[in-house]
Amino acid sequence: MDRVSAQPKLDRGYGKIARKLGRTYAQYRASTAFNPISDQNKVGDLDCLFDPKSDFSVQRVALHGKPIWFAAVDRTTVEVGDYFVGDNGTWFIASMQDIAPTMAVKCNAVASIYRPGSGQHDPYYPATEGTHTDTLTGWPVSFLEGTKGERSVLNGPLDTRVPWFDVLMPVFNTGDVRTHDRLRLDDGTEWVISSPELTELGWRLTCGLVTP
């Protein structure tokens, strides 16, 4: 059996695993760069099983700081970048390579990205209203601590290090991300993007906290 004929059988096989052991999730596919998890973007409902290990034994718990999961799902109606939302969490599909298991990223935050206007690139202060352009809004992301951070620009005796985090999110065809863009979380905190890396699994962004 060659790869071409094997893939549909594997897709159906993963779908059977999902129907037997998984849960039903709402499936969303972004149509614009704004608010992908909205009624207009809902594709339907689909059975999925998300497991930290690719054997789908459902016998291993997720490890701290490990956002990459494996998805058992019938891939005939799934595309890279699709979101799945259910009682057990929110994931986006990061990779659907031939033969290999589908890879997904578990989300723990919602982020928006905007680009400061001319003269608003000071990394220590947020852009004021009317001086920036929204690039992406309302995207569920994986937001996990990265490096230990760096010293505050003031470097006072009681200053702690400015935290740095890594952000994983899908690629959208109208959403360009650049160094010095700002990321705003749903908790109101703002972060400056230091390093946007486009990987095979989507965007990986290194961000530092904006500290006014």
List keywords for this structure.
6-stranded antiparallel barrel; mainly beta; about 210 residues; 6-stranded antiparallel β-barrel; 1 helix; 2 domains; elongated; Thrombin, subunit H
Count of beta strands: 12
Overall pLDDT level: 84
Which strand order does the major sheet show? Answer: 1-2-3-6-5-4
What is the total number of structural domains? 2
Rg, Å, rounded = 19 Å
The span between the termini is 61 Å
Gross morphology: elongated
Helical run tally: 1
Poorly predicted residue ranges: none
Helix/strand structural class: mainly beta
Order of helices and strands: HEEEEEEEEEEEE
Strand content: 35-45%
Helix content, binned percent: under 10%
Largest sheet: 6 strands, antiparallel, barrel
Report what the structure shows.
By secondary structure, the protein is mainly β. It has two domains: 3-107, no CATH class; 109-209, Thrombin, subunit H (Beta Barrel), CATH 2.40.10. The chain has one helix and twelve strands, in the order αββββββββββββ. It has one helix spanning 3-21, and strands at residues 23-28, 42-51, 68-72, 83-86, 89-95, 102-107, 109-116, 132-145, 164-169, 182-185, 190-199, 202-209. Strands 1-2-3-6-5-4 form a six-stranded antiparallel beta barrel. A hairpin with a 2-residue loop joins β11 (190-199) and β12. The radius of gyration is 19 Å and the shape is elongated. The N and C termini lie far apart (61 Å).
Give the SSE map.
Layout: H1 3-21, E1 23-28, E2 42-51, E3 68-72, E4 83-86, E5 89-95, E6 102-107, E7 109-116, E8 132-145, E9 164-169, E10 182-185, E11 190-199, E12 202-209
Antiparallel strand pairs: 1-2, 1-4, 2-3, 3-6, 4-5, 5-6, 7-8, 7-10, 8-9, 9-12, 10-11, 11-12
